[in-house]
Amino acid sequence: MEEHLTVGRVAELAGVTVRTLHHYDEIGLVRPSSRTAVGYRAYTAGDVERLREVLAYRRLGFGLREIADLVDDPATDAVAHLRRLRGLLLDQRDRAAAMATAIDRELEARAMGIRTTPEEQLKVFGARLYDAIGSAYPATRRTEPRIAARIWDALGDARTVLNVGAGTGSYEPHDRDVTAVEPSAVMRAQRPAGAAPCVAAAAESLPFEDQSFDAAMAVSTVHHWADPVAGLREMRRVARRMVVLTYDADETGWAHRFWLIRDYMPEFAGLLVGWPSLADLAGAIGGRAEPVLIPWDCADGFFEAYWRRPEAYLDEHVRRAVSVWTRVGPQAERRAVSRLADDLSSGRWAERNREIVALDAVDLGLRLLVA
Ligand SMILES: C[S@@+](CC[C@H](N)C(=O)[O-])C[C@H]1O[C@@H](n2cnc3c(N)ncnc32)[C@H](O)[C@@H]1O
């Protein structure tokens, strides 16, 4: 039998006042649609689902009118709401990380007696993660030719290619007609002279007609999108072939193999929570997943790139070009780096990682989705 909850019980569970619930009832936002045996209004499972959506949008700062439009939209089911809410929360988390980074910078500048300009102070509020960390990107992030060859091979005979989340364009093929999409102004500004034209947009809403490209590619970017599945569907809509370099977040055996996560950064697990499974991502484009090994001398300085060159992680330039370090926060970063430095000088790192040091390339969860 379906359980019905009283107003008092719902208020207690959700951590809101009974008055709030009465107000939502009065304005027709969430109406308890059942009655208890003694005639009081009671919430059904469906009412609770709607209330949960309302409270989550409220917490994200939406106004009640706006929320009413969102939850009444017949085209959006409960799963779509959860996906959208999850994306908005991650976006909020990234913005908070970007803001904290900008504040750290200002504190450092002030400590050196430098005052930031009014423009710089205000920019902090609109900061997106890559607007805050993007200027450090080109220092170590560039094309890794062996990975590029896999991507270009998978593009097949595509002549027109859309590169979504293009950044500075590290993996754009030079022998095809490429259009790039990149939401961060800082990243767009760092595209080299002569790079493909770049449109300011996000994956979740691509400003192109259906089937306007032979292929769409996305490299090391899907985990940054507010709604990865929606973004992949958009790519599918605008292109016939798809090539996506991403991570396998469900078979995380590789996380145990990667000593940086295993021994120094347990916080990494938190970044994967709620991340869509590889099957969900592959399902969104109807594609297959192929493992991509990371060579020991990988030229592109992404998070796992230095698995056989541990000293690299002690270098601030290496860390600043990888969002993971900003996302786990300065405390976790300081602790990880200082423990790693200790273990490298004591020989403990070498002792623990004898097996991996003997390899030339390793599977650390990188996957190429091709459809
Ligand atoms: C790690 S960089 C990868 C850049 C480039 N693809 C490469 O391989 O060098 C991730 C990029 O994704 C972009 N990005 C973040 N959210 C996005 C979104 N919703 N849609 C498209 N790109 C996004 C960031 O601005 C950033 O430039």
TrEMBL record:
The keyword rRNA processing does not apply. Residues 4-73 form the HTH merR-type domain. Keywords: DNA-binding. InterPro entries: DNA-bd_dom_put_sf, MerR-type_HTH_dom, MerR_fam, Methyltransf_11, SAM-dependent_MTases_sf. It holds the Pfam family Methyltransf_11. SMART domains: HTH_MERR. This is MerR family transcriptional regulator. The lineage of its organism: Bacteria, Bacillati, Actinomycetota, Actinomycetes, Micromonosporales.
